[in-house]
Amino acid sequence: MIRKLLRDPLAHFLVAGAAIWGALALTGDPVDPASRTIELSRERQAGIAFGFERMMGRPPTDAEMDAAIERWVREEVLYREALRLGLEDGDAVVRRRLATKMDELAGAEAEVVQPSDAALEQWLVAHAGEYQRGGAVSFEQIYFASEDAARAASGTESPKGEAISLPRSVERKSREEVAQVFGQQFADALWQSTAGPEWQGPIRSGYGWHLIRFQQREEGHTPPLAEIRERVEADWRSATIAERRRRAYALLREAYTIDVE
Amino acid sequence: MKRIGRSWAALAVMALSACNFAGEGEPTEAQRGDGSDTIELAEFPDRPYWGDTHLHTDISVDAFGFGVRLGAEEALKFARGDKVTATTGMEAQLARPLDFLVIADHSDAMGATRRLYDAPRMLIRDPTLRRWHDMMHESPEQSTRAVAELITAAANDQIPAALRDPERQAAATRELWDNHLAILDRYNRPGEFTAFAGFEWTLMPDGNNLHRVVMFKDGSAKTSQVVPFPGLDTETGDLWDYMEAYEANTGGQVLAIPHNSNLSNGMMFDLVGPDGGAMSADYARRRARWEPVVEATQIKGDSETHPFLSPNDEFAAFGVAGWELGNLPLTQRTTPDMFAGSYVRSALLRGLTLEQQMGVNPYAFGLIGSTDSHTALATGDEDNFFGKHTGVEPRKGRAMESQNLGTRVGRFGWHYLAGGYAAAWARGNTRAEIFDAFMRREVYATTGPRMVLRLFAGFDFTEDDWEGEWVRAGYTGGVPMGGELQDTGRAPVFLISALKDPEGANLDRVQVVKGWIDANGEAQERVYDVAWSDMDGERKRVGGKVPAVGDTVTRSEATYANSIGAAELRATWRDPDYRSGQRAFYYVRAIEIPTPSWVLFDAKRFGLDLASDVIEANVIQERAYSSPVWLKPRRGPDDAPRIMGKG
User: Does residue A192 lie in a domain region?
Assistant: First the structure.
């Protein structure tokens, strides 16, 4: 049971949430509107300095840091006064921001966690289709406007086609590249054909009919994790965040009943 | 404050490492530059690269108000072929990815509606802004209304100071722009997908559209040295100054693309200078230098020509209905005397006239299409039209609703075109290669379909050139679209090939549009049918005219059949009306067989009951426009500028 819990992302979320909640409670950061003491933690200062650096591309000088802190303090004072007046009540922006914050909390841990190689390998295997590099073909084609003409020519030794501004021979192109020039229908049919040195077909395209002859064919493969780790990690991360948000919301939502008048 | 420690830098680094959020990873050196020397290039441009140069996202002041919540990241993902979720919740994916994208958000008040929306209500003091804030939060309809008010206010010079003050915007824009450029570099992949930096410069005197898309060649190292240049309260000369300074200071390159001339009430291609006096040669030279390409077709109508200007052109009415009535907010109606300054073909003619007068042609531009979509989704096809903006993303009522911009007069949803695309003949897919194709005008426009259009002009081409490697012959024996020929005393000959979109409709015909200045100094135009389907069979000219191709569209099903038309049309065409010393341009128009527009797809999908005239207006013949080739008189006594130095 415990081991299962340890693997459950939702449990992670709840534990992380509780930890953040606890930490916030300890530092007293969720503002007590009655308090008139503003504490400026090291983390807060770091955040202000970082905000400045992102904007200006360099760390602030002492004077700039002082000014930035003054601005932050001013905002904090106004914020607390606004809470005292109850201005957040019925404010659509505040409502939405808080909801967004809850959502982000759910995904927060997945934003920074470093997934293990094993986890990414597993992801790659499960989604291999999305990462497959489709291989490449080299082939010749001859064009016919009508199927009959193509079939008639297909038995001959060196068939003659009709003029069209499509390349007669194509070298080492991916399925996508072939589809860009000849259309998807042709590329799909070409990929389903068995490679061989003889003229074969006809296969159909958006233009008409084609006899084809393979020069070379390289099979597709899924690259090893090391080659595409960055992309796999980004995809894993965004999927994990989305999944955690979904499950967190589902759990919260379960406790509510909605009465529609 | 003094008791605070001094190691801000260390603290910032600490905070930074905690913020190492997910993304595409850090861009490589190759991704950050203009792509020169990053991939192997073809010997000569071997295929058109497809793109949209005119896409808006959530930092455009109007797009956000219209409801879009997708930003640059989603826009780039969508354009390169990923599946994204549109603002209104539908999943969207291009059947065919694009090769390049220019995100062109409005520079004026960039990000301002997003900030206004996010601002705490109590801190908004301006009553107009506060009202817009409330409307944006109230409902999508109210939000759309708020933007309509904002555009009208911009047209009438009544934008609240808080939104238009460049000083107040500067800091916010700086941060937005830097973030934006970082995203572009991450998605820019030489050889696979090109992400260009750009913005839209939105000059709109009295509501008349003088908008330009500004497109940079370079990566963030150079583009981050500027911020987008605001349009309100400036003029075109100021924009060119900005562009000139950018090139001088960074060593980079930039160009501007005028668009929606059809909504300019004759101002986009004026015969006079911006102050109303005679156009100066300097103005003409600068215009030609900075604006090599014009966007001729997009969602808000087609600007090639108008039946009033081209009464003998039976295909001139495409994408004109509704848009011809006036400027965008309809604060000023269009009168016929304005048309010549609003359409591309007449502008090319004016260019010849002005060149004859002062020795410089201000309107020697190439042609592209784009979308001008405000949904962050660069859709250009009839069966995937995601709407001009988020308020008209696919839903039942959108085709027949009147347009809330301006008045409710005469413009309806169904007047929107599904959008166009730009095709660039380049040697590879990089920023530098595609940008250079724009600069040399080796680009063309389509209304969405991806036809492959080739045009070469020379003096010695013959039918035999088709037998061998005719593209090589074209490049070695002549100039491609966008080029110039010096008159040799012989009639120019053109190699023209139009290959249908492999996923689309067959071709009806290919035409050459010629414009020239006759012996009396009058501008003339003529459309020649040079190749059409079944031209050697049943479809002979009748009374000098090529008969219509036919019509296979099943209206109620939004389908058509390729049982008519041709897969490819070729012509070796010699100008039969050439006169020695003539100043002329030639461009090619390729026309598809009739197909259903997005409106008929909507009718099928949502079960609409459309009036028969609306149905018939939405059986359309999509098309491609090549950039022109210009024939220039030999330098000689006849060519001396007649009014040199005027103005």
Answer: yes
Boundary residue ending a domain (A101, A120, A151)? A101
Beta strands in chain A (DSSP E): 136-144, 169-173, 200-204, 209-218
Residues of chain A neighbouring B466 (CB-CB closer than 8 A): 163
State whether A7 and A90 are in the same domain.
yes
Quick check: is A22 in a domain? Answer: yes
CB contact under 8 A, A205 and B1: no
How many domains, chain A? 2
Among B3, B8, B19, which would you mutate to test the A interface (most chain A Cβ atoms within 10 Å of its Cβ)? B8
DSSP string, B311-368: TT-TTTTTTTTTGGGBSTT-SSB--GGGGGGTSHHHHHHHHHHHHHHHS--TT--EEE
On whether residue A54 sits in a domain, the answer given is yes
Q: What is the CATH number of the domain that holds A137?
A: 3.10.50.40
B316 φ, ψ to 5°?
A: -80, -15
Q: What is the pLDDT of residues B479-508, one digit of tens each?
A: 999 999 999 999 999 999 999 999 999 999
d(C-alpha B457, C-alpha B441), whole Å: 14
Pair (A89, A10) in one structural domain: yes
CB contact under 8 A, A164 and B23: no
Contacts of B117 in chain A (CB under 8 A): 93
Nearest C-alpha of chain B: how many angstroms from A194? 23
Backbone angles phi, psi at B287, to 5 degrees: -60, -45
Question: ipTM of this model?
Answer: 0.82
Q: What is the pTM of this model?
A: 0.81
Beta-carbon separation of A94 and B120 below 8 A: yes
Chain B hits for A55, Cβ within 8 Å: 171, 174-175
| Together in a domain, A6 and A85 | yes
| A97 lies in the same domain as A175 | no
Which 8-state DSSP code applies to residue A28? T
Nearest CA in chain A to B467: A163
Interval B450-483: pLDDT, tens? 999 999 999 999 999 998 889 999 999 999 999 9
Question: What is the residue range of A10's domain?
Answer: 2-101
